[in-house]
């Protein structure tokens, strides 16, 4: 018995049988329309279940999707009243024609399609598919680890044009689940239908935009906080006595430790051909600042080393600029064991060859150390403000 609008089931048979639909199964290679000039309308429902992983180096996104396809088979229409009230059945998907919907930008597709489809008496068919997709995604890692990524999924027919198969989105049926486990958080999902023009043919396609946000806690705890601690220790090392040799060795130990930290951190940072993340620049500049700090210590140590040696008289304008104007500008307070230049001037002792004693070198070295320390603090403060501002601007625009 042909299973169609005008067909009836075998008498005393509760619902359709395999024999009653054999004629429909035989038409499986053909598009299920009576008039081949009419397109088969396929509707797509999209649910993003989870983000399984992101490979920044390979620019690959791994997701788990749940798709539902709806279409109409004009050969599978019956009257439930003539079939003991049976209005819905399930059939093997391999026995029926199915839309050849694929994802265009996929590197790997692990499909767990349901082997059966649900068919109601009007000929409408529903087919569920669960997909684990490894798809290409252009990742922007400049604001790593506070980055927000926008990846796309494009669905379309492999061989049927718009005249043969029309693809559209089910109204308000694409969504994302509230799944925030793992490193990535699902933020938003939007989609729209469009036409793909290729030569004289047109294909219906559906594009979904998936917005995901990285959870930065792991990177803040493992990268930013330890780096900030090392920079803080480097700043506090300026409070060591400038005449202490331990200050230089201490700073060199910090630089060595920071270098080891950078080597370990290199495995956590994403590496792509699109550019360098701002956090990588941040660590490089921090290392440069620590080197500048060591250079400042070398300069002060050099001045201290020669403080007991015989020097020619320091020009008066140098003493005035450093000991008076610069000292007042940076609000320098003289240590208890160092006399202010006005008092020391009264007790000035010059050797017979016209050299200057350590009373002049010592105040100058303290003022220079204080001045260079303030400049170093200013550089670090400006640098931190620039980094925080850039990150805030980038996050607000994402």
Automatic annotation (TrEMBL):
UniProt keyword Kinase present: no
Function (record text): Forms serotonin (5-hydroxytryptamine/5-HT3)-activated cation-selective channel complexes, which when activated cause fast, depolarizing responses in neurons.
Origin: domain of life: Eukaryota
Phylogenetic lineage: Eukaryota, Metazoa, Chordata, Craniata, Vertebrata
Transmembrane region(s): 217-240, 252-269, 281-304, 375-396
Keyword vocabulary terms for this entry: Cell membrane, Disulfide bond, Glycoprotein, Ion channel, Ion transport, Ligand-gated ion channel, Membrane, Postsynaptic cell membrane, Receptor, Signal, Synapse, Transmembrane, Transmembrane helix, Transport
Boundaries of every Neurotransmitter-gated ion-channel transmembrane domain copy: 223-345
PROSITE patterns with a match to the protein in the record: NEUROTR_ION_CHANNEL
Residue stretches making up the Neurotransmitter-gated ion-channel ligand-binding domain: 30-215
GO cellular component, one term: postsynaptic membrane
Subcellular localization: Postsynaptic cell membrane
Alphabetized Pfam families for the sequence: Neur_chan_LBD (PF02931), Neur_chan_memb (PF02932)
Family classification: Belongs to the ligand-gated ion channel (TC 1.A.9) family.
SUPFAM superfamilies: Neurotransmitter-gated ion-channel transmembrane pore (SSF90112), Nicotinic receptor ligand binding domain-like (SSF63712)
GO molecular function term, any single one: transmembrane signaling receptor activity
Membrane topology (UniProt): Multi-pass membrane protein
The keyword rRNA-binding is annotated on this UniProt entry: no
Reactions catalysed: Ca(2+)(in) = Ca(2+)(out); K(+)(in) = K(+)(out); Na(+)(in) = Na(+)(out)
Stated name of the protein: 5-hydroxytryptamine (serotonin) receptor 3A
Annotated InterPro entries: LGIC_TM_5-HT3, Neur_chan_lig-bd, Neur_chan_lig-bd_sf, Neur_channel, Neuro-gated_channel_TM_sf, Neuro_actylchol_rec, Neurotrans-gated_channel_TM, Neurotransmitter_ion_chnl_CS
Stored CDD domains: LGIC_TM_5-HT3 (cd19063)
């Amino acid at each position: 018995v042909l299973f169609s609008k005008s067909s009836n089931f075998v008498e005393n048979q509760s619902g359709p049988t395999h024999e009653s639909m054999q004629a429909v199964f035989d038409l499986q290679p053909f598009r299920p329309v009576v008039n081949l000039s009419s397109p088969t309308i396929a509707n797509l429902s999209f649910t993003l279940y989870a983000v399984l992983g992101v490979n920044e180096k390979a620019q690959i996104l791994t997701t788990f999707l749940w798709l539902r396809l709806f279409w109409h088979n004009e050969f599978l229409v019956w009257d439930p009243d003539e079939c003991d009230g049976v209005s819905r059945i399930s059939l093997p998907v391999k026995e029926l024609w199915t839309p050849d919907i694929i994802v265009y930008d996929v590197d790997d597709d692990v499909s767990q399609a349901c082997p059966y489809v649900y068919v109601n008496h009007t000929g409408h068919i529903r087919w569920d598919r669960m997909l684990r997709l490894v798809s290409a995604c252009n990742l922007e890692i400049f604001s790593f680890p506070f980055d927000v990524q926008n990846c796309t999924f494009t669905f379309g027919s492999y061989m049927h044009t718009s005249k043969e198969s029309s693809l559209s989105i089910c109204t308000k049926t694409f969504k994302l689940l509230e799944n925030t486990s793992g490193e990535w958080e699902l933020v938003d999902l939007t989609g729209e239908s469009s036409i793909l023009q290729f030569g004289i043919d047109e294909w219906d396609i559906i594009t979904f935009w998936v917005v995901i946000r990285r959870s930065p806690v792991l990177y803040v705890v493992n990268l930013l906080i330890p780096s900030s601690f090392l920079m803080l220790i480097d700043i506090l090392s300026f409070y060591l006595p400038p005449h202490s040799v331990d200050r230089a060795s201490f700073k060199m130990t910090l630089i060595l430790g920071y270098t080891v930290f950078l080597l370990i951190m290199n495995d956590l940072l994403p590496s792509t051909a699109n550019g360098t993340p701002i956090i990588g620049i941040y660590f490089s500049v921090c290392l440069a600042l620590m080197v500048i700090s060591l250079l400042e210590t070398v300069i002060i140590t050099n001045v201290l080393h020669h403080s007991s040696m015989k020097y020619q008289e320091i020009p008066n304008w140098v003493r005035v600029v450093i000991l008076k104007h610069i000292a007042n500008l940076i609000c320098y307070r003289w240590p208890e064991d160092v006399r202010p230049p006005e008092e020391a001037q009264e007790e000035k002792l010059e050797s017979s060859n016209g050299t200057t004693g350590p009373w002049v070198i010592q105040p100058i070295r303290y003022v220079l150390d204080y001045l260079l320390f303030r400049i170093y603090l200013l550089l670090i403060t400006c640098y931190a403000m620039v980094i925080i501002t850039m990150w805030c601007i980038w996050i607000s625009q994402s």
